[in-house]
Amino acid sequence: MTRKILLNRRQILQLGLGGLTGIGTLALGQAKCLSKQLEKLDNPNRKFTVIGQASLKQRAAAKGLFYGAAVRINPLFQDKKFRANFIQECGALVPEWDLKWTSLRPDISSFNFTYADRLAKFTQSNGMLLRGHTLVWHESLPTWFQKEVNSANVAKILQQHIKTVVGRYARQVHSWDVVNEAIDIKSGRADNLRNTPWLQLMGPDYIEFAFRTAAQADPHALLVYNEYGLDYDSRDDEAKRVAVLKLLKDLKWRGTPIHALGIQAHLNGASTLFNSQKFRSFLGNVASLGLKILITELDVLDKNLPEDTTKRDQIVAAVYEDYLSAVLQEKAVIGVLTWGLSDRYTWLAEDNSSGKLLPLPFSLRPLPLDVNGNRKLAWNAIARAFDSAPRR
Length: 392
Ligand code: XIL
Description:
This protein is of the alpha/beta class. The protein contains 16 helices and eleven strands.
């Protein structure tokens, strides 16, 4: 008898089964199939040769694209080698924490811009694009939110938040993730909207309201709807692609100032469910709405891969190159960001309960640079994808 366990999204990711199961439940017996799936990805003869030493940002720029990464303030300002690597490789920066509500909003009436300002200044002095993440999300809400926000004051509070934050960085932010993760096909709603505090308090119009308010506060920023779970040829991802397309069409039809889809792309190294043709047709559909596309949070989870580092890196690199070389064929794609640059600071190594990074050594290798800041095969894979991408 197979026992079914209910898992939340973070646990699914940490178990490394998101892209494999495609659903929120995992039959214990399925884990055994993993090794079979991996055999297909693990090809020691596949080479990831790269010509020259140019950085990722240079290779992206040569094709009219940009490359960047998410970053936490402490490593950037305390780890010299990491900072030098970040400046070398990245043409764009997205604060991993510092523009979220929990960081910016100590209480209902004040804002703390200390860290976000430091990061904004850093991007200016280093000629990098700054991405804003994120204005409306069901996670990262401060504890006061539930106690103090209600249907009578929610619109005013959201409007004030967006005006203040977007206004402060107007003309500095390249693109804002205005709304993050609003679709949940398991919500049981006809419109597939996630049952979030925003939806409960404001109804479905909160999305359009957020985009309109952001456009007023900074008419120059690219306004993005950002989503996860879109990448694989699974029933759930397909349903999500359909729901997201419907949402985007609807927003465009109503004249909402939305300019791009952000695809998080938290990939699973153990999944063989990526279907480049299907995915490209989805990207084509998004592009035909007149929207740009950004890959916003790319990483490749390598849990459940062989322990041997050479094999592990080989598989992760194959996943990066297969994904990016398909995606970059679509000319509406304007940039790629990984969710972190070095394995040392990956969110995938956060302890589930405390949110703190696990102490070194840990074996996760999901990002372009290793824990010591050296380029890995994953770096080569991304470089190769940029090198072979058509010019914009
Ligand atoms: C994550 C951060 O990386 C973690 O450090 C934090 O504990 C939780 O949030 N999708 C998103 C990001 O849009 O904001 C999330 O970032 C990762 C998943």
